[in-house]
């Protein structure tokens, strides 16, 4: 409910700001509102198990964590940008070490099924191209003890 109220507040605020704007300005304002609403889905810094350093936007940065019997899902990077200023490509480097339990780093886009990037001890490195809309990278854990180093540019 809180998310819906916040989204409606953004829409109302945006409608007042758009009076007299050009089409491009309206689209830019709309993109900013959509991106702000998408940031709500990210796990808050105080709730994260590790340390996150934000990059140039919510899609990039670094995350390092040591987990001890953690079960849950953390949404680390991403958003709902229609037109991301930094482009659609993200370079992902991840090192995952699993001592106990399970952990998987995933990418979820829109209503598609989540894509597992890595779920065993090892490293992952690739470049992904984001489609328009919601895109999130996170980690899903079940009684996970181990660590992660994640860098996204």
TrEMBL record:
It comes from the Bacteria. Keywords: Signal. The keyword Signal applies. Residues 1-19 form the signal peptide. This is Ig-like domain-containing protein.
